[in-house]
Design goal:
Helices cover 34% and strands 33% of the residues. The chain is α+β, with helices and mostly antiparallel strands. The longest helix is centred in the middle third of the chain and has 17 residues.
Length: 155
């Protein structure tokens, strides 16, 4: 909960607004409520499950990696690094480090990676982390028909 202010600030950048608008927290209180919800996921078998809050210097939060249930027994990886820290390899390092841990903890053999087709940064992270492309085209993304990119990582 002590990172609510960082989570709020990180959520406000233009990339987050464009690519994951449901993860924009306009106030610190909204971020705090989201953190409470995410933390409650550990009390059940369902998600989402946040396994990594990424810190740059051990004190300030610059992003996260999470697993989100998508359908019957399927899981999707989600991640975000604050705009001020993108392009420095933090997302790739975090995803690469925590995917095997998450897959083992959830006892799953594959993880989906889904993003908007024009989110080239996320596509590069997924590719660097061993995800293979399975679909590009029109599909549902946050309740809307959009051009999407889907990939899969297998253990």
């Amino acid at each position: 909960m002590d990172m609510a202010e960082d989570v709020h600030r990180n959520s406000l950048d233009e990339d987050n607004r464009r690519f994951v608008p449901d993860e924009v927290f306009e106030t610190v209180e909204e971020a705090r409520e989201a953190l409470k919800y995410l933390m409650s996921g550990y009390e059940s078998e369902e998600g989402p499950k946040v396994y990594a809050l990424i810190t740059k210097d051990g004190n300030s939060n610059i992003g996260y990696v999470q697993m989100v249930p998508v359908g019957e027994g399927n899981w999707e990886i989600g991640y975000h690094v604050a705009k001020r820290c993108t392009g420095q390899g933090y997302a790739t390092e975090a995803v690469r480090a925590f995917m095997p841990v998450m897959a083992g903890k959830l006892n799953i053999k594959e993880i989906q990676g889904i993003c908007l087709a024009d989110n080239t940064a996320s596509r590069h992270v997924l590719a660097k982390c061993g995800f293979e492309t399975v679909f590009e085209g029109l599909g549902e993304y946050q309740g809307e028909e959009r051009e999407i990119y889907k990939s899969v990582w297998k253990r």
